[in-house]
Write a structure and sequence with these properties.
Layout lengths: L12 H10 L4 E5 L5 E5 H17 L7 E5 L4 H12 L3 E4 L6 H11 L3 E4 L4 H6 L9 E4 L15 E2 H7 L14 E6 L9 E5 H11 L12 E4 L6 H4 L1 H8 L2 E4 L6 H10 L4 E4 L1 H14 L8 E4 L6 H11 L2 E7 L6 E4 L4 H4 L3 H8 L10 E5 L14 E6 L22 E9 L5 E6 L4 E3 L2 E3 L1 H8 L5 E11 L3 E10 L7 H8 L11 E4 L13 H7 L15 H8 L18 H22 L1 H14 L4
Helix pairs in contact: 1-2, 1-9, 2-3, 2-6, 7-9, 10-11, 19-20
């Protein structure tokens, strides 16, 4: 027997319809690519989006066709976004931070027929247009007055298309499982793969993000989505904001500290979302200028692990609550969020902090499990770490065009590629990407945890940790540090800063100061590129006779540390006691390794990890 409720297809055109009908005068503010601040409303965006739908129909676009956008977060991007999806075509958001060769590959693989682009990216498209044979038209998202800057033969003007077409367009009327959006992975381990979202999956994801235990957005919020729309639908905010009729503040291409601070204050922003690097830039700006945050209340940080120092600074100095979230292109992207449970909310602020630093717990609509390499399920005790797998109505089933083959296990779970733990409260914590975990002496070392602590050093702007080959232990950690402008430091002071905060055997074997730590297309540290740069790096602990070699390599690369008087380490409460336990166990490991080999040493390493839990 079936239920007798109405069949109301969950298609995303209904989201903007709702925003226009019930919140039509709610403002959308944006920093345009041309420079000035623009102001519009949901009703105006709805009408202009329908005009663009008619323009697309006139250009021969049909349901299922892929139409690409290469653009920052602006009101025009919102308009074309819904124009494409509303008519049943597929909106393919291109990530401009990818290499040109990857962009060409993605455009050709998706078979994009039209590209809507900001002025910013026209030179790239023009230079490589011969490598995109299936692209029929390019539309420049600007007005007629700025088209002279385009210098792209045959390009169409966005505003001219809007003016020339009627708003009388039909949206919806197709199956809710129809393809809606296409977003490619960042391609860190090969060619990027396409994740094809459906209308149903995006609609359900929107309802999930609106839960109080997730983003908890409402009509009274003023939202600044710094996270780009080409990062998995701006983490869903491009749907959830209009769904509740919240005021949107769109940053355009300017995402530096001063520009973000200006929008936060002038527009009364209450909620924002971005990767850690954006908030680090804002924090540096606030600290250098004495700026304040008078309306911002909540921030969601994802994309990579959030440093403890960042959470503390926003909480203690600016009264802003930071919530850590985790997800990926394949999860639409929300997977978990570190919203406290009733038990955790009853704890002190300091006790809650260790949960805020985790990636969080799964909302309704996401199932998690941990398995070992043989697929055996692992306990949720906060200690056992294994492969993180997920399933749900907005989790990828397969990649576009079948790339990668069968990607689900026998129970329908997708392997995220992350190594994680889940504690007794249901809070998941990423310990590393499977490809980034450091395997030392038969045990695993979390590069993420070391770099998060190192990034909390007052002189550090950014930190990264990679595993470097070692003749005895397979791999050992190498810490790379990018210092804040004008700062100097030594290896010894960073190692002293780590003491008592990590297990002794996790301590990096060397520290190198660099001018730059490369970030990938999604704002995460590009470990692949770092490993390539340090492919021939020899650790000073690898062989005593080679102790000068790494210094010589560093000098050749311009990475020589500048000497400076070290500062005392800032130990966490109880850290000294745990360090003594770790040192005692470390001494025992030396005996174990000498008498029983690496396997016994690895077992000793597990004892150290347990002894330093809850540091």
């Amino acid at each position: 027997m079936l239920g007798l409720m109405q069949n109301w297809p969950l298609t995303v055109d209904k989201i903007l319809d709702h925003a226009s009908q019930w919140h039509g005068d709610r403002e959308i503010v944006g920093r345009s690519i041309e420079g000035p601040i623009t102001r519009t409303t949901y009703a105006a965006i709805h009408e202009r989006a329908k005009r663009l739908t008619n323009a697309l129909t006139g250009m021969g676009i049909k349901p299922g066709d892929r139409v690409a956008t290469l653009a920052w977060n602006t009101s025009r991007h919102i308009e074309v976004w819904y124009a494409i999806m509303g008519m049943g075509a597929v909106c393919h958001t291109l990530n401009p931070r990818l290499f040109a060769e990857q962009l060409c590959y993605i455009i050709n693989h998706a078979e994009d027929r039209i590209i809507f682009t900001d002025l910013t990216f026209l030179p790239t498209l023009l230079e490589h247009r011969d490598k995109m044979p299936k692209v029929e038209k390019v539309v420049v998202m600007t007005d007629a007055g700025h088209m002279v800057e385009a210098a792209y033969p045959g390009a169409l003007c966005f505003e001219t298309l809007v003016e020339q077409h009627s708003p009388d367009a039909t949206w919806g009327g197709f199956d809710e499982n129809s393809a809606c959006g296409l977003c490619y992975t960042s391609g860190t381990t090969g060619n990027p793969k396409g994740v094809l979202y459906s209308h149903r999956s995006n609609f359900l994801h929107t309802l999930t993000t609106l839960q109080t235990d997730v983003m908890g957005l409402s009509n009274t919020d003023v939202i600044l989505p710094v996270v780009p729309m080409f990062h998995a639908n701006a983490w869903g905010i491009a749907f959830s904001g209009p769904a509740v009729g919240a005021k949107l503040v769109l940053p355009g291409s300017k995402m530096d500290g001063p520009a973000i601070h200006e929008l936060l204050e002038t527009e009364g922003v209450t909620f924002s979302a971005a990767v850690p690097t954006v908030w680090q830039m804002l924090l540096m700006h606030l600290q250098s200028t004495g700026g304040r945050l008078t309306t911002l209340k909540r921030v969601v940080i994802g994309g990579s692990a959030v440093p403890e120092a960042l959470v503390r600074a926003f909480r203690d100095d600016y009264g802003v609550d930071v919530t850590h979230a985790w997800g990926m292109t394949e999860t639409s992207p929300l997977g978990t969020q570190s919203t406290p449970t009733a038990k955790i909310a009853a704890m002190s602020a300091e006790e809650q902090l260790r949960f805020k630093l985790k990636q969080g717990r799964a909302p309704l609509g996401v199932e998690l499990k941990l398995t070992d390499d043989e697929g055996r399920e692992l306990p949720h005790d906060g200690h056992a770490f294994g492969r993180l797998k997920v399933r749900g109505p907005f989790i990828v089933r397969e990649y576009f065009k079948g790339e990668g083959g069968d990607i689900l296990d026998s129970e329908g779970f997708f392997d995220t590629g992350d190594v994680s733990t889940i504690d007794e409260h249901g809070f998941m914590q990423i310990t590393d990407r499977a490809k980034d975990v450091i395997k030392s002496g038969g045990e695993w070392i979390s590069s993420i945890e070391i770099e998060n602590i190192a990034a909390g050093h007052p002189k550090a702007e950014l930190a990264a940790v990679i595993g470097v080959p070692h003749p005895k232990w397979d791999e050992r950690p190498l810490l790379l540090v990018k210092l804040k402008p004008g700062m100097t430091a030594t290896k010894e002071e960073f190692l002293a800063f780590l003491e008592g905060k990590i297990a002794k055997w996790w301590m990096p074997d060397d520290v190198v100061f660099v001018d730059d730590i490369p970030l990938g297309a999604t704002g995460k540290i590009d470990k692949k590129l770092i490993r390539q740069r340090f492919e021939h790096y020899v650790l000073p602990t690898a062989a005593g006779v080679q102790s000068a070699a790494p210094r010589a390599l560093a000098a050749e690369a311009g990475l020589t540390p500048v000497l400076f008087a070290p500062e005392p380490a800032r130990a966490r409460p109880g850290g000294g006691r745990m360090l003594l336990v770790a040192m005692a166990l470390a001494a025992s490991i030396g005996v174990l390794a000498a008498t029983h080999g690496r396997e016994a040493a690895g077992w000793g390493g597990q004892l150290i990890a347990q002894a330093t839990q809850g540091r």
